[in-house]
């Protein structure tokens, strides 16, 4: 970090209109050509913002794309049907759909790995609401007596998320609904 603790480019404010144009262009391109074919050049051309400016605002395409789609990666609602297994399964299936919203598993893996620590931090931030949703489902089940009071709510939610992330992000595999059903059933039966 430069002297004084300022970030590079911190003295310049982003033009809000140009910023919106870049994020809109990135999302449009993502939908049209897929993550692997989006480039900073294409984003610059589509948005009308200079490529050099893009690199001043974001370190790479993964950072631009993450900012462009961040709000679409959050869960819309926590399922509440009264059936804990069905609710957990619905939440996990929605997470899987979100992780593959813009292509196969290689998109999340590629975006995360190209951003290093920043990618890990973004993934953690994106996953936190999903974790909280799973905790809410499990807490409801404990509160209604469907699960014992000493049920390991946080550990179970972490295990479910860990399974999905390991398979999708690190192994770049497709996780089927059958896999999730077994995972949830076994966890709740323990």
UniProtKB/TrEMBL annotation:
GO terms for MF: DNA-binding transcription factor activity; transcription cis-regulatory region binding
Q: Which PROSITE patterns match?
A: HTH_TETR_2
Keywords of the record, alphabetical order, are: DNA-binding, Transcription, Transcription regulation
| Pfam families, per the entry | TetR_C_11, TetR_N
Which part of the chain engages DNA, per the record? Answer: 39-58
Domain HTH tetR-type: start-end pairs: 16-76
What InterPro entries would the database entry show?
A: Homeodomain-like_sf, HTH-type_TetR-like_transc_reg, HTH_TetR, Tet_transcr_reg_TetR-rel_C_sf, TetR_C
Q: Does the keyword Acetylation apply?
A: no
What this protein is called in its record is DNA-binding transcriptional regulator, AcrR family
User: Does Transcription regulation appear among the keywords?
Assistant: yes
